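It is worth pausing here to work through a concrete case rather than discussing structure prediction in the abstract. The textbook approach is simple: state the sequence, then state the predicted structure, then interpret. We follow exactly that order.
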Amino acid sequence: MRSDTPDRPTPLRVLGWILARVALTALFTLLSFHAQHGNSDGATVVLEGQAIAHGNVLLHHWVLSEDSFWTVDALLYGLVELIVGVHGYLLHVVPALIATSLVLVGITMAVRDNPRGHRRVAALVVIIALLTPSAAWAQFYLAGPYHLGTTLYALGVFLLVASRSSWRRDLFASGLVMLGTLGDLQMLTLCVVPLLLAGIVALARQWQLRAGLHYFVVAFGGSLLALVFRKVAEMIGTFALAPGRSTAGPSLALHNVIPGLRYLGDLIGVSTGPFTPTHLVGALSPIRVVEAVLLALAVIVTLVALLRGFVGAPPAEIHTSWRLDDLLLCGALGGFATFSLLAVTGSDAEARYLSPTIIFSTILLARLLARVWATASRRAPLLIAGTLLGCGLLGAGGATATATLPPSPMTPLITLLTQHHLTAGIGGYWSSAITTVESNGRVSVRPVVTGANGRIIPFPRQIDRSWFTATDPTFLLFFDNLAVDGLTRATARRDLGPAAHTYDVGPYRILVYDHSLPIALGGGAHPPRRR
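Step two, the predicted structure:
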């Protein structure tokens, strides 16, 4: 029997996978609660899921950015909300579900092509590395939507394409490409372009056109399906796309290489960086340095093997492990290229684009270490080194799990709003959707901003346009830092009139009016209507 023959599922094995998924999700949820409070980007996708759960599957009337997450994270939120409705804890539970799926798919990919007796090594590497994120990376890894769902789709495509080609596998892989591209254009750099590059390498490795043909079929077929589906959805009625973000030119993209490498080190935990990690990071940084070096070596070794396969003569007998290696390598480089192309503001938050690179590299490292273990003549030193490193990483993960976040300012804000029966309002983008979701839908705050003409207008994206005709808001909520929400008391007084009551809750300002404040979609407020 071949060593890569998949084990047949048994009831006990299925039960084990279910229990593992539940345990991983619970652990990741705990880590998420200790890593971040959530924000309006994530909360907007929760509201997209609410619309899907209520039957608006195509998100008609919405205006979204090109990374709408419609068929990625929002679809999962919609499925969950069919059962539980809108709740603030979904900002932690759903990213935990995605992280759990990444670990399980990562294990499946890591053990692939490795001898059965050595698969535990590959599985342990994935589990320990992805279960112990640094405090810095956990802010992106266990929050949403930061393209981790898109990464999961890409891994699924790679796993299918690396298998023996069949029309069923290719069709399913094309469907995943379609879903990922419809919801997030980063699917192009994380999956489609890596597929094309790996297909070219496969063709060159075997000197046969058919060796890379199904790579191209899946890449182009899935992209074409996404384009056709989008056009059909537009004819039926779907969301509009806001103007796309700017991308870095060649000079800036090249300049972003050094900051990208530095951010990778910060996310892994090599240095403190700008992400306010825990006080234990300094003590644990040597462990993270070893982790970073191993990840870098995995990428370099695989790159060398790819180049040798690309220019060398085809071997007499091909072992197919290189297929998945090449795809993971191209995906890791695609994630880094995403950062280089999209990091245009200089914000530390742009480091989120590097999460896929860490995940792809981790799975690649697990595959290579299992081969090293299988061929090692002396395993005792490897066992000792691996045990020490694993214990160190578990300690680092424990630091993340026990980190204490400052109290969320959302709690007293929502308490005040509900106590004063303020259930419908407008607010700055970074104060609106998160308030709606954290209040479990009891308070609806719709996003507005000060437009170029100085008038308060609906936020130009991440909105459902029907929000501004469905309710009569009676208060304005905004962050006191003008750079956050772009709203001030002076703007509100000029555009909305004097407030009947004002409240200050931490960094938030609430202006309550004795008349409704419907905001016109064309810009500015309608004439006030007395209540």
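Step three, interpretation. Residues 1-5, 524-531 have pLDDT under 50 and may be disordered. The first helix runs from residue 11 to 35.
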